[in-house]
Automatic annotation (TrEMBL):
<dbReference type="Pfam" id="PF00479">
    <property type="entry name" value="G6PD_N"/>
</dbReference>
<keyword id="KW-0119">Carbohydrate metabolism</keyword>
<comment type="function">
    <text>Catalyzes the oxidation of glucose 6-phosphate to 6-phosphogluconolactone.</text>
</comment>
<comment type="similarity">
    <text>Belongs to the glucose-6-phosphate dehydrogenase family.</text>
</comment>
<keyword id="KW-0521">NADP</keyword>
<dbReference type="Pfam" id="PF02781">
    <property type="entry name" value="G6PD_C"/>
</dbReference>
<dbReference type="InterPro" id="IPR036291">
    <property type="entry name" value="NAD(P)-bd_dom_sf"/>
</dbReference>
<dbReference type="InterPro" id="IPR019796">
    <property type="entry name" value="G6P_DH_AS"/>
</dbReference>
<feature type="binding site">
    <location>
        <position position="260"/>
    </location>
    <ligand>
        <name>substrate</name>
    </ligand>
</feature>
<dbReference type="InterPro" id="IPR022674">
    <property type="entry name" value="G6P_DH_NAD-bd"/>
</dbReference>
<protein>
    <recommendedName>
        <fullName>Glucose-6-phosphate 1-dehydrogenase</fullName>
        <ecNumber>1.1.1.49</ecNumber>
    </recommendedName>
</protein>
<dbReference type="InterPro" id="IPR001282">
    <property type="entry name" value="G6P_DH"/>
</dbReference>
<feature type="binding site">
    <location>
        <position position="207"/>
    </location>
    <ligand>
        <name>substrate</name>
    </ligand>
</feature>
<keyword id="KW-0560">Oxidoreductase</keyword>
<keyword id="KW-0313">Glucose metabolism</keyword>
<feature type="binding site">
    <location>
        <begin position="117"/>
        <end position="118"/>
    </location>
    <ligand>
        <name>NADP(+)</name>
    </ligand>
</feature>
<feature type="domain" description="Glucose-6-phosphate dehydrogenase C-terminal">
    <location>
        <begin position="214"/>
        <end position="508"/>
    </location>
</feature>
Length: 514
């Protein structure tokens, strides 16, 4: 994120890394859920990466807390083994050909493990007696523990901020399962903590390509003047996955694609692409701008929502069993593994511009992107080399796995005739930036240690996002339409194509891109 923002929040007496960015302030990171997947797969590798970048302070400690029998030596040894394993798997989220011994030793020496029940105030009080100064509590635990763990922290006196020191708590989605449960969760935790002590993670905001959307829109002059209803015809937001429900049936059966992806990850993409320029890049200005956007979403109509569920098929050459035949899934499950919907944003900039969003599992390709489709020119001066009129101009924000921006426009096909073809100009990250190991949590962790909440969700952001999808959830509570089956390895159910065809439009293909 921009240097100016970082230096505003990091302590000014902290050393500056070779990159010019200041290291985080001295602090203790307490991880609840030390044995969990999030800690192992993402948090510890992200801490390692931050140390490689010189962004962790010398006076830094990590205390891992979990209920499992373990010792500091055991925990360190397990994490050391895990880091070594990462070097053997180039497909791992965290892959580096070699672990830097000095860096890992530095971090490992700062790790300690405490076996405790993190919902027990007495146990937390004991842990607290060993900590002074700044503390970040990272709740890398299932959501049902958020409220009890925060309550216990409060009872143990660990949420009070002595002498200008900070006490922060990080939680990660799901923040409730609907509007009411999100409100309940917020009111529980806000009874113990002040809003500025809470850092709610949406890991999509940890992605460089998502952070880049604001840089692209508000750090240049060539995009923003055309970024509105006069020039833009529609915007399509896609998060397609090839993964299936895998071993997550217990969670997924009760959740489904809408709750899992829409009011959180897809709405973050929506906010980045559609929000008004904030008055400054200060966290509250950015979050308020997002909030205004969420408040402008019109109630979603039931006929503008398509639910799908994958049937058996083949994904990337591998056979996939139907969702309903997956372990832990009810044989008559009507949970959606795909959802598409049309949203309307009622403000001066976007009135009349549809936002089509879709996400699904077991699809043909893994792809997250935003396609901004422009209007066609007011008159057709040139014939097209295409059978029909040339496709409209598109700006495509390639979020993953391809990272970059693609601009599609018409150019004259060489030859004696004046005929237009659709061509592309591509910005790709590897062409401009050295690839640094990054699991997507480095910036989030660093920002939280520095107290910069720009990339985190405020209570009102969460509640307004849920209230935008509430009409859909309310309709489903009264009786769901059965999900339309789609073949695993396809682009989703036919109903999603009809949703756009009704408006005379079509989805941008979910094709692999380079
Ligand atoms: C998670 C969802 O929040 O995001 C998963 O629970 C989904 O179902 C994942 O697969 C997608 O994130 P990413 O970063 O892998 O695209």
């Amino acid at each position: 994120m921009p240097r100016a923002r970082i230096s505003t929040f990091a302590q000014t007496d902290q050393p500056v890394a070779p990159s010019g960015v200041r290291s985080a302030p001295d602090c203790t990171l307490v991880i609840f859920g030390a044995h969990g997947d999030l800690t192992k797969r993402l948090l510890v590798p992200a801490l390692y990466d931050l140390k490689v970048s010189g962004l962790l302070p010398d006076r830094f400690r990590v205390i891992g807390i979990d209920r499992a029998e373990d010792t500091t030596d055991g925990w360190r040894a397990g994490l050391t083994g895990m880091m070594e394993n990462f070097t053997k798997d180039p497909t791992a989220e965290f892959y580096t050909p070699k672990i830097d011994e000095t860096v890992w030793t530095w971090l490992a020496e700062r790790l300690s493990y405490v076996r405790a029940d993190f919902t027990d105030p007495a146990a937390l009080r004991d842990i607290g007696s060993d900590i002074d100064g700044n503390v970040v509590f990272y709740l890398a635990v299932p959501a049902r523990f958020f409220a009890p763990a925060i309550e216990a922290l409060g009872k143990a006196g660990l949420t009070e901020e002595p002498d200008g020191m900070f006490r922060r708590v990080v939680i990660e989605k799901p923040f409730g399962t609907d509007l009411q449960s999100a409100k309940d969760l917020n009111s529980h935790i806000l009874a113990v903590l002040k809003e500025e002590q809470i850092f709610r993670v949406d890991h999509f905001l940890g992605k460089e390509t998502v952070q880049n959307i604001l840089a692209m829109r508000f750090g240049n002059v060539i995009f923003e003047p055309i970024w509105h209803r006069d020039y833009i015809d529609n915007i399509q937001i896609t998060a397609a996955e090839t993964v299936t429900v895998e071993s997550r049936a217990a969670f997924y059966e009760a959740t489904g694609a809408l709750r899992d992806m829409v009011p959180n990850h897809l709405f973050q993409l929506l906010a980045m692409i559609a929000m008004e320029p904030p008055a400054s890049f200060a966290p509250e200005k950015v979050r308020t701008s997002k909030q205004t956007l969420f408040e402008s979403i019109l109630p979603i109509k039931p006929e503008d929502v398509v639910r799908g569920q994958y049937a058996a098929g083949t994904v990337k050459g591998k056979p996939v069993t139907a969702y309903r035949d997956s372990p832990g899934v009810a044989a008559d499950s009507d949970t959606e593994t795909y959802v598409a919907m049309k949203l309307e944003v009622q403000n001066w900039r976007w009135a009349g511009v549809p936002f089509y969003i879709r996400t699904g599992k077991a699809m043909s390709n893994r792809l997250a992107e935003i396609v901004v489709e422009f209007r066609v020119p007011p008159l057709t001066l040139f014939p097209s080399a295409h059978a029909h009129s040339p496709p409209p101009n598109r700006v495509i924000l390639n979020v993953q796995p391809v990272q970059g921006v693609t601009i599609c426009f018409g150019a004259k096909k060489p030859g004696p005739e004046m005929r237009l073809v659709d061509v592309q100009s591509r910005f790709r990250y590897p062409d401009f930036f050295v690839r640094e190991p990054n699991v997507g949590y480095e910036t989030l962790l660093y920002d939280c240690l520095c107290g910069d909440a720009t990339l985190f969700q405020r209570a009102d952001n969460i509640e307004t996002a849920w209230s935008a999808v509430e009409p859909v959830l309310a309709g489903w509570r009264e009786g769901k339409t059965a999900p339309e089956l789609y073949e695993a390895g396809s682009a989703g159910p036919g109903g999603a194509d009809e949703l756009l065809a009704r408006d005379g439009r079509a989805w941008h293909p979910i094709a692999g891109q380079e």
